[in-house]
Amino acid sequence: MTISPFKYLQGHFHSDAIIGLDVCIRKQLLVTCSKDKTVCIWNYEQRRLELCQAFNEECLAVAFHPSGFHVIVANTDKIQLCNVTSTAIIQYK
What is the pLDDT of residue 45? Predict the structure, then answer.
């Protein structure tokens, strides 16, 4: 029996493979995107899920703005600039 040295985050998890991941340099936030068309923002210091937003199309990549208030989501045909609020990830452009 092997014991994992990692502690797992609690909360909603992606239901398919994670494709993209980025870390915010000014906050304790991590963003992931998955083939299940969701983008999740995690607080790795408190080990919890902050936001999870479903999109209409599959997300291929994500990137945080250094401030943590914006995130870029790349889809197959477009790149979306989104604002991160306390309750949702809202498309800006």
Answer: 94
Q: What phi and psi values does residue 30 have, to the nearest 5 degrees?
A: -135, 135
Q: How far apart are the C-alpha atoms of 85 and 11, rounded to whole Å? A: 19
With a CB cutoff of 8 Å and minimum separation 6, the contacts of 49 are 9, 11, 12, 40, 41, 42, 43
46 exposure class (CB count in 10 Å sphere: 0-12, 13-18, 19+): exposed
Take residue 80 and report the two structure tokens written for it.
């979306």
The 3-state DSSP composition of the chain as helix, strand, coil percent (nearest 5) reads 0, 45, 55
Residue range 59-65: mean pLDDT, rounded: 94
Distance CA 39, CA 58 (A): 10
Residue type, 33: C
pLDDT, one tens digit per residue, over 30-50 is 999 999 889 999 999 998 989
